Amino acid sequence: MSAQQRATDMGLTFEPIEPGYLNLCTKVGNLLMTSGHTSDLKGVLGNGLTVEQGYEAAKDCAIKILRSVHDEHGTLDGLRVVKLLGCVYSAPDFTDQHLVINGASDLYHELFGKTGDGYHARSALGFAALPTGAAVEIEAIFEIT
């Protein structure tokens, strides 16, 4: 089953996100590179927000990224997830950023395959603040195969 079909079966839809100040997804050669996409959830992980809430916020970012990628490429088929950069608005002693960003990685594994096109490199970092107070921001690189 294709990634596009799996996404449809999961109930994901791909209405374009209204562009803002920057390009949400740009094509360079055979790569699609996204801007950071922020979660709707606001707040600080480890200071009021749980890992589980952060996981869902990362998934929200991953879905937004897919909308931007779909808008640029026209489909999720023929793509390989190359790299994610996950940023987590974190309390100073919070060290579970990797568990938060698993929300995005797990979704991409489900759509593209954990050992195939969804197997990606990733960084998960803690930040003192993120734009608009978002709990999570993620950017991604996809290869057009």
Question: What features would you highlight for this structure?
Answer:
single chain, 145 residues, alpha/beta, 60s Ribosomal Protein L30, Chain: A, 6-stranded mixed sheet, two-stranded parallel sheet, 3 helices, 35% helix, globular
Question: How would you sum up this structure, described in words?
Answer:
By secondary structure, the protein is of the alpha/beta class. The protein has one domain: 2-Layer Sandwich (60s Ribosomal Protein L30, Chain: A). The protein contains 3 helices and 8 strands. The strands form 2 sheets. Strands 1, 2, 3, 6, 7 and 8 form a 6-stranded mixed beta sheet that branches. Helix 2 crosses helix 3. The longest helix has 23 residues. The protein is globular and about 40 Å long.
